[in-house]
């Protein structure tokens, strides 16, 4: 939703509805039950996944650190929900209190929400930034996994023996920087919705392309090492096999994350283009459930 700050500049917050007293509606118990169920299921899945990855020897320690860090970032969504909750359920009204705002992204000045100052509504903008940052980090997570496997391919001779834990921290740091930049681009509404959606798709495609390239590169190296045993050391052949094993395991992680990002993108497009249809509220609840 676009907010017009003191009539001078615009800020975007990932909140799909405003000024709707949801807590007085007959739908509220069902929405609350759905949210609670999703929360419990998700936290159990996250805890289980972290436990499996932490104890698994199938992944290199750098890849394990990246995977666990990304799973733990789900806490961002919880914090974002905490700060956005009063606005989502209608405890707090903004702009024209008689008007229901449900334009997730708009170019119309009439559909923007006028507020006098950012500081007065800091929970809204802070929660919105956390929400957007988590989604951006999901996009760059695909690239992080592919980059880590690309580095493993570069250090074929001793990557297993010399773990280089700083690599995972550098990848995470760079990923957080780019996620923050993306979040600020979203927040300050630098581009139109369609351009922003294109950038999301572009990063996702680039990440998957890098993963595919690394996978086929290691497959090719494996074939060469098997055909010319004398030319390559045992360590290099072993590392290639380990890379392929990790890549095959990571394939499910990359695929799942790519599907998640694609679903979020589809939901965003449905909310954007369906804003004037009679199904706009259904699109909003579906998007909220998918992202959460």
Automatic annotation (TrEMBL):
InterPro entries: 7TM_GPCR_serpentine_rcpt_Sre (IPR004151), Nematode_rcpt-like (IPR053365). Keywords: Membrane, Transmembrane, Transmembrane helix. It is found in: Membrane. The keyword Transmembrane applies. Its main location: membrane. One of its GO terms (biological process) is sensory perception of chemical stimulus. It is a multi-pass membrane protein. GO terms for cellular component: membrane. The chain crosses the membrane at residues 28-50, 62-84, 124-145, 166-188, 194-217, 252-275. Belongs to the nematode receptor-like protein sre family. This is Protein CBR-SRE-49. The lineage of its organism: Eukaryota, Metazoa, Ecdysozoa, Nematoda, Chromadorea. The gene is sre-49.
